[in-house]
Amino acid sequence: MRPRYFPLALCASLLCLCQSYTLRSSVSWVVSSNDVDVEDVDLSEEVAPALLVDGAGLWKANVFGDRLETPGLGEQVEPESEETAQLSSRLFSYPVEKVKKSGSGSSPPPHQETARTARYIAHYSDWGHLATISTQDKIRGLPFGNIFSVSDGPLDNSTGVIYFYVTPMDNTVTDLKNNPHASLTFSEAEGDFCRQMVYDPEDPRCARLTLTGKMVEVAPEELAFAKEAMFSRHPVMAKWPVGHKWFFMKMDLIQVWLQDWIGGVSVIPLEDYFKATPF
């Protein structure tokens, strides 16, 4: 092979390899471009639970055409039926037009207003990164991070208290049973502001907020609000299979840490944080 053709051959080989893999995830977060209404999808206990159990792994090499093999394991499994694959993709999706965009029509507060900025980020963030102390065998006692959908209330009612909807099947929930303390990090890069300002996510002017506290189960008298807070922002959650024993948690805050400008960080007193408003 002539040297000048080698890069083209290499690219062609890589493309062939990429086509031989299919991404399989029993927990799909794809938002379908079709107008799918979760009300019309069968998510009964007879149908849905199997879709939420991850089996042999995320990546499967399609080396036998209509059969799948896990690389390095030699395990062969039958491919998903078209009906199962379609239901799996819908189970965690919903028409985007049905949910009002978080932060729509609002701009970040001036960076000098640190408490208000913290409340703004906490309220308009739909998800965050939760760090716990792991109980997994290989990383026991080490930090472990996971992504969670969150809400501090409906879009028109911010409380500053972060609510979660979780399952005991999650590694993070197992960690929290052993040590309930955790840190939850948000980035302003989640929204449009940093992109519009051409701020890198690590730029101090692209604000980031870390809330540290104790994770607790929501008390019965608070369940109605927690449900409204989560399901109004993440409506598909209402359709998740009850067999996975989903329940509501919240974070009792210990510290509010914010970096929203060049020159240092702010540790915001809890009293100031809860007095502020994101609106």
Termini gap: 65 Å
Which structural class do the helices and strands define?
alpha+beta
Low-pLDDT segments, ≥5 res: 18-77, 96-100
Order of helices and strands: HEEEEHHEEEHEHEHEEH
Q: Any chance you could write out the topology, listing elements then pairs?
A:
Blueprint: H1 6-19, E1 21-23, E2 59-61, E3 68-69, E4 76-77, H2 82-91, H3 114-124, E5 127-133, E6 143-149, E7 163-166, H4 171-178, E8 181-187, H5 193-196, E9 208-217, H6 223-233, E10 247-259, E11 266-268, H7 270-275
Antiparallel strand pairs: 1-2, 3-4, 5-6, 5-8, 7-10, 8-9, 9-10, 10-11
How would you describe this protein?
A hairpin with a 6-residue loop joins strand 3 and strand 4. The strands form three sheets. Strands 5, 6, 7, 8, 9, 10 and 11 form a seven-stranded antiparallel sheet that branches. Strands 1-2 form a two-stranded antiparallel ribbon. Strands 3-4 form a two-stranded antiparallel ribbon. The chain is an alpha+beta fold and 279 residues long. Helices cover 23% and strands 22% of the residues. The protein is built from seven helices and eleven strands.
